[in-house]
Design brief:
Number of strands: 0
Radius of gyration: 19 Å
Mean pLDDT: 87
Shape: elongated
Distance between the termini: 36 Å
Oligomer: single chain
């Protein structure tokens, strides 16, 4: 979104081009994050039983699909031409989705202790608030 703001404030297409390449890099990094996330999600039945995990996973997949659509739009129309208005709209939706999925990810860690090493003597299966 900063690239679009740069275009509006300076009229310089550099920011749109920089945003295009940054979006490509983000898509590559999201593939690595998805690999780790799917491994956790598919490899642990306790995680799959938590409603917040489903929200986190589906929201992140949707964010990546929308970011990919934005990238393809900018690739086909040109970085500057694809940035407004649809590139901006897609980027805004992706940011809102990531805020939501980040909140759900925090719920997984802090409420359900997913990915947290149990404290000595703690049995994760015996705590009712962790099995939601």
């Amino acid at each position: 979104m900063h690239g679009v703001g740069g275009i509006w404030s300076t009229g310089n297409a550099f920011w749109a081009e920089a945003s295009f390449w940054l979006l490509g890099f983000v898509l590559l990094m999201s593939a690595a994050a998805a690999l780790a996330g799917f491994t956790d999600f598919l490899g642990n039945s306790r995680v799959r039983s938590i409603n917040a995990a489903w929200h986190h996973m589906v929201g992140n997949v949707l964010a990546v699909v929308l970011a990919l659509a934005s990238f393809m739009l900018r690739l086909s129309a040109g970085a500057a031409e694809g940035a407004l208005p649809w590139g901006l709209a897609l980027s805004t939706i992706v940011v809102l989705l990531l805020v939501y999925t980040g909140w759900k990810g925090g719920t997984l860690v802090y409420e359900h202790r997913v990915g947290v090493h149990p404290e000595e003597g703690e049995d994760l299966n015996s705590r009712p608030e962790l099995s939601r």
